[in-house]
Task: structure prediction
Amino acid sequence: MSDVSVLTQGECPANALAWKEIVASYRQPSFWRSVWQIVDTLVPYAALWYLMCRSLSVSYWITLLLVVLAAGFLVRVFIIHHDCGHGSFFKSQKADDIWGFITGALTFTPYYLWRGKHAIHHAASGDLDRRGSGDVWTLTTVKEYLEASRWKRFAYRMVRNPVVLFAVAPLFLFIVAYRFAPAKASKRERHSVYWTNLGVLGMAIVLSSIFGIKAYLLIQLAVIAVSGSAGVWLFYVQHQFEGVDWQRHGRWDYTTAALEGSSFYKLPKVLQWFSGNIGFHHIHHLSPRIPNYNLEKCHKAEPLFQNVPTVTLLASFKSFTFRLWDEQGHKLVGFGHLTTLRKQQTLATRC
Result:
């Protein structure tokens, strides 16, 4: 076992390099555990769809309660999709691709398009000079926000508004944005968008013919809205939390970015289950090939992995206030920090 305590900024101690050997035994997926996760996720999700449709004739409030539960299972479906994208769910790449497409259709997410963007996120997470793909838009305080045009500052404030970021944006992303392939998308990524659209359309036609189009839309949009918000929140809080370490490219290194730039989101067990252990995000970024059901075991295997920024459910709500990265203070701050900076600059000028 390593006796490493805390990695300092930009450092990668020699004994920290041993993590590659430590995680190796956790990278092997279990066929039966993966199959069981598919069963214990998709079967309840399908059952909840039936119950939600039947509950519409009783009370939409009952339906909405079931929607919250179904959204939890859909987040778990997305974790399977996520693992398939990393090639970590099955030993067979073909099996990963097949289930990646199926779970992608269920979550309205084009498999190959999302996989490509997510790979960029992993390669550049925590690197201030390589932002912009697969992450949440974040500006540095002085250089970017204060020197930006009025329109860009307005747009940024709108995007970072919690209602837009966690309610409007997820619904737009999964319902609208993922229906179109970006201009720079590869042929395979474009085809994944087309095939996913066909899968979504086919699913909509079948469910609408069984339960009615009104019932389908009332349920599907609500489930996507709730699960999308939860998913964006999980992604957001695991990279934007108090004590996070971000660096310019010259000081950035992979190990430190994983262990100090990704949080250990310590959730209650039931939420940990629904989120597929993704709260062990530091382990996931350290080795994306570890299946979600092995992340907790790997975390407990080595003190180095446990001595990382820990964010509890209650403490995570502070992340709502983070809007900008203050390079001078090396921390995330809210917009109120700008007022403090301006006052300090005014006083300095007067003096």
